[in-house]
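Annex B, item 7. Sequence and structure tokens for protein A, then protein B.
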Amino acid sequence: MKKSLIFWVTTSGDQIEIPLRPFIFPQFSFLGTSMGSTEEFKQMLDFVIHHKIRPVMDKTFPLSEAIQAFKRMEEGKQFRKICLVPDCPL
């Protein structure tokens, strides 16, 4: 049986509720990480906004073209980030 790795990151608090049985029986592995406090996250956002830091984007695809975006990534044609955006305004 192939085992899967589950990981998640939270900046909203220390407690979560999940049903354990669906995760235990298939023998999932859990990996946790911490990136700092909520206050540190806010400071990082303020820093990014203040210094106008923007990620280097290769290309933006509408969500309906996600397959093409993944093909571009799989073929190694992208330079840095590929972005998927909703097809309709939020």
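Protein B:
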Amino acid sequence: MGHGFALNVAPDMAAFSAFTACGLPEVAMASLAEMAAALGGPAPAEEAVRAAVADAFGASSRP
């Protein structure tokens, strides 16, 4: 069985308390917005995240 790849930018994380993501009960899901807030910064824009991931994988984020 394979796994996917996802980045939670700024969703309502309450939904994640209803299930065990990836069968990992000891792992808490987080969002980039929560992590940025913990560091005192703003949430990244979805387009900026998409572009950064595309750049990291050597792909274009634009059609």
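Comment on protein B: The chain has a mean pLDDT of 86.
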